[in-house]
Amino acid sequence: MMLVLLLAATNAVAAATTRRSAREGGADDGKAGGLMAKPNCTAKCGNIEIPYPFGIGLGCYFGPRFEITCNQSTKELRLMETRMLVDSISLTEGHLQTKQLVNRDCYDAQGKPRGEDQSSGGLSVIPPYTISSDKNSFFVVGCDTYAHFVGRRGNQSYTTGCISVCKNNPNLYADSFDKNESCSGMGCCKTNISPLLDNLSLQVKSYKNHTEVHDFNACGYAFVVKKDNFKFGKTSFQYLNKTHRLPLVLDWQIGEESCQYAMQNKTTYACKGNNSDCQDKPSSGYICLCKPGFQGNPYLPDSCEDIDECALNSTLCNHGKCENKEGNYTCVCDSGYKNLDDITCIKVPSAKPLKISLVTYELELAIYI
Ligand SMILES: *[C@@H]1O[C@H](CO)[C@@H](O)[C@H](O)[C@H]1NC(C)=O
Ligand SMILES: *[C@@H]1O[C@H](CO)[C@@H](O)[C@H](O)[C@H]1NC(C)=O
Ligand SMILES: *[C@@H]1O[C@H](CO)[C@@H](O)[C@H](O)[C@H]1NC(C)=O
Ligand SMILES: *[C@@H]1O[C@H](CO)[C@@H](O)[C@H](O)[C@H]1NC(C)=O
Ligand SMILES: *[C@@H]1O[C@H](CO)[C@@H](O)[C@H](O)[C@H]1NC(C)=O
Ligand SMILES: *[C@@H]1O[C@H](CO)[C@@H](O)[C@H](O)[C@H]1NC(C)=O
Ligand SMILES: *[C@@H]1O[C@H](CO)[C@@H](O)[C@H](O)[C@H]1NC(C)=O
Ligand SMILES: *[C@@H]1O[C@H](CO)[C@@H](O)[C@H](O)[C@H]1NC(C)=O
Ligand SMILES: *[C@@H]1O[C@H](CO)[C@@H](O)[C@H](O)[C@H]1NC(C)=O
Ligand SMILES: *[C@@H]1O[C@H](CO)[C@@H](O)[C@H](O)[C@H]1NC(C)=O
Ligand SMILES: *[C@@H]1O[C@H](CO)[C@@H](O)[C@H](O)[C@H]1NC(C)=O
Q: Residue limits of the EGF-like domain (predicted)?
């Protein structure tokens, strides 16, 4: 409340200073660079930040699909409507990271199923969430292993699969895997997944119950995982034996309209303040961003604050003094240098004393006449 009054009453510079010191004094209202949760709302659960439009408790989130619950004892975050575990939330990309089960299919030396494993499973999300295709991959790992992947978008569905069969222990060749971090078919198979899926299901199976490879591989695995969060190599079989969940990325957006239509209704438009921008999502809906040169939470009024580029980087200007500007910076050049494009100082070439000799010549002429 006090914050709002101060903002209205003072100029931009004073207001920015006030906000900064309010933030430093506040217990847990966000990180440097802008208030991330709504004022008076829980900003963190354990170590995980909860930026608005997400929030805990009535009045703290943008809509029911953005409501989060925090288990105080376990510090586990869940999306209210889906009960899905939340690992992190990114505003700049419109991502939410969750953890997804690794499906496994294990056998004893005689080829009898171990029984305790979950060899099929899946994930179902509701709008505004979809399973990110550019941030995740589908992996199948094992030496007597194949798996189906069924993806759905609304009432459309498609099936893909991956097979990995090896006669020898791929770990023997794993030096070359490690160098190239590859999943090349030996012990591992990988495919991309199609965009905008809202439901996926996986099933992992074996051809010969791992009887021929049991010495070095008793289980097959299938999972969808965030890119760069799984690399096949020497230790992958051991790693997956004791890894039950892996990170997976969901995309989210606001509403179903494009920016152009959404911004026509200021009450429902989610991008707040003068320094926020709107970005269309490829399918439908939009996300909000701070304008270039600003940082903060674009879903909150006046949270996108100017970045002081000069303070962040003391060597930003060569041959000049850095001065911060609203949304940018400029270089005030040292003497002997001039400004090329506001941010680059170049040497001024030294002038020749040509004019003086001309003047002298004219004077001489005048005397002789
Ligand atoms: C935050 O809480 C304080 C104390 O409970 C209250 O005085 C203030 O009005 C609240 N601010 C907002 C923006 O709700
Ligand atoms: C928090 O987690 C613990 C352990 O999983 C569980 O027993 C408890 O019921 C949870 N509390 C809430 C409020 O969900
Ligand atoms: C092989 O595994 C399947 C289940 O995956 C099981 O139904 C079958 O009985 C197994 N075969 C043998 C010989 O144990
Ligand atoms: C798929 O859904 C759309 C709209 O939800 C509907 O018009 C269409 O008939 C459905 N197609 C099938 C094959 O069910
Ligand atoms: C790694 O694999 C890629 C694609 O399979 C290939 O283009 C690249 O040359 C390999 N790099 C090395 C260092 O072997
Ligand atoms: C998602 O797919 C799974 C497996 O095919 C199915 O059991 C589940 O009902 C689906 N969920 C929705 C919402 O379609
Ligand atoms: C996986 O780990 C369990 C113990 O957690 C162990 O008994 C089993 O032999 C391991 N399996 C493989 C294939 O490494
Ligand atoms: C904006 O949206 C709100 C809520 O849906 C609605 O009540 C209001 O009439 C809309 N305003 C305009 C100008 O369309
Ligand atoms: C936002 O921009 C409008 C129009 O340019 C201006 O009237 C208003 O004071 C600005 N608000 C803030 C907080 O800077
Ligand atoms: C800052 O100004 C420079 C030079 O005018 C321009 O190239 C650059 O894109 C601007 N940066 C931002 C964040 O607006
Ligand atoms: C600081 O700015 C200079 C000049 O633009 C750049 O070369 C350097 O990488 C920047 N340093 C950091 C830490 O960003």
A: 306-346
**Residue 146 maps to a domain:** yes
Q: Whose CA is nearest to atom 14 of ligand 11?
A: 313
- Evaluate whether residue 227 is within a structural domain: yes
Answer yes or no: is the C-beta of 41 below 6 A from any ligand 7 atom.
no
State the residue range of the domain holding 218: 97-252
Q: Write the pLDDT tens digit of every residue in 53-79.
A: 999 999 999 999 999 999 999 999 999
> What residue owns the CA closest to ligand 9's atom 11?
274
* Ligand 4 binding pocket, CB closer than 6 Å: 154-155
Question: Phi-psi bin for 6: left (phi > 0), alpha (psi -120 to 50), beta?
Answer: alpha
| Residue 274, domain member (yes or no) | no
In a domain, 314, yes or no: no
State yes or no: pLDDT of 52 exceeds 60: yes
Atom of ligand 9 lying closest to residue 274 CA: 1
161 Cα–ligand 2 center, Å = 37
Identify the residues whose C-beta falls under 6 Å from ligand 8: 265, 267-268
Ligand nearest to the CA of 38: 1
Q: Which of 71, 73, 72, 66 is nearest to 89 (CA)?
A: 66
Residues 6+ apart with CB under 8 A from 305: 16, 19, 33, 34, 275, 294, 295, 296
Mean pLDDT for the chain?
A: 84
pTM of structure: 0.80
